[in-house]
Write a structure and sequence with these properties.
globular, 332 residues, mainly alpha, 13 helices, Farnesyl Diphosphate Synthase, disordered C terminus
């Protein structure tokens, strides 16, 4: 098939995507064993590509305004290409060609891919989030289901461990929302529950006003605190992962949780500039992640709390498997 890069070019494209789009994930991904890392970064490249297409940005940066009509057209294209991945149709986009390799290697269910695209559709349709359950539903689609797919890349198939992987995705996204409250308003989006805004007497269309910053700080704090039990639940899943994967996942969790803690510490100034972690903090996270991965083998973990948001269950929860069509002979 002409126009599609081969394996080395696909992984090179994926590596460039992760380096530009997420320095935190790029650092943590180096801790995987090589085969797992290849699949993880190719999966990331597909997720990053879909997000960029919908937001009119490059590697998660420099978003430009696009019309709803154009966004809907782009979403249809993403869905069409995703269906093509599973049908074994010809592909000419490296992000989708890479994703096909991951799908075939790790039996990623098509439903997971479509659920992820449903999160972008919520953005396109300008979904409003009235309650925290609405916000958590969004978090599931854009991040929780990515946790499910990443877990399958690491060899996970049992539902309890998949629940923990989903919890980590939810924690990541709650942290992202807290960090990006003001940036999101600049592109006309708000993922905070409107019930929370009403409790603080903050009008949705005035969220970015500086005199509302004390109330916004309280809302950011509430999100960060909400993420904590999901981080704790995810940590309980480390013992089910191969130790290198556990190390990588634990490290990523430490980095993201640090961002949430910085939002808490900064208070009203959390949105003066984009919060991130330093190189030294990332090195510390690597060491902390190693300790968590090792000690997780000897810990006694409690059952997952029934108070946590529960992801949708697949039709056959015992062992959901994808059935992608075999790739054509000239596919990557």
């Amino acid at each position: 098939m002409t126009g599609v890069p081969q394996d080395d070019a696909l992984i090179e494209h994926a590596n460039r995507s992760i380096a530009a789009g997420s320095k935190s994930f790029a650092a943590a991904s180096k801790l995987f064993d090589e085969p797992t890392r290849r699949s993880a970064v190719m999966l990331y490249a597909w997720c990053r590509h879909c997000d960029d297409v919908i937001d009119g940005q490059e590697a998660g940066h420099d978003a430009v305004s696009i019309s709803r009509e154009e966004a809907e057209r782009r979403l249809i294209h993403l869905k069409t290409q995703t269906h093509a991945v599973y049908r074994g149709d010809a592909l000419d986009d490296p992000a989708f060609a890479a994703f096909r390799q991951v799908v075939l290697a790790h039996q990623i269910p098509e439903q997971h891919a479509l659920e992820h695209l449903a999160g972008f559709e919520m953005d396109v349709l300008e979904r409003r989030y009235l309650s925290i359950d609405d916000t958590l539903e969004y978090c599931y689609h854009v991040a929780g289901v990515v946790g499910l797919m990443m877990a399958r890349v690491m060899g996970v198939r049992d539902e309890p461990t998949l629940d923990r992987a989903c919890d980590l995705g939810l924690a990541f996204q709650l942290t992202n929302i807290a960090r990006d409250i003001i940036d999101d308003t600049a592109v006309g989006r708000c993922y905070l529950p409107e019930q929370w805004l009403q409790e603080q007497a903050v009008p949705l269309d005035r969220l970015a006003d500086i005199h509302h910053r004390p109330a916004v700080a309280l809302l950011g704090q509430r999100l960060v605190e909400l993420a904590e039990p999901y981080y704790a639940s995810a940590r309980a899943g480390l013992s089910a992962l191969p130790w290198r994967s556990a190390w990588a996942v634990a490290t990523a969790a430490v980095v993201y949780r640090q961002i949430g803690m910085k939002v808490l510490e900064a208070g009203e100034h959390a949105w003066d500039e984009r919060i991130s972690t330093s190189k030294a903090e990332k090195i510390g996270a690597v060491l902390s992640g190693l300790w968590q991965a090792v000690t997780s083998r000897f810990a006694r973990w409690p059952a997952r709390s029934a108070d946590l948001w529960q992801r949708p269950r697949p039709p056959c929860a015992a062992d959901p498997r994808a059935s992608p069509a075999a790739a054509p002979s000239d596919a990557p």
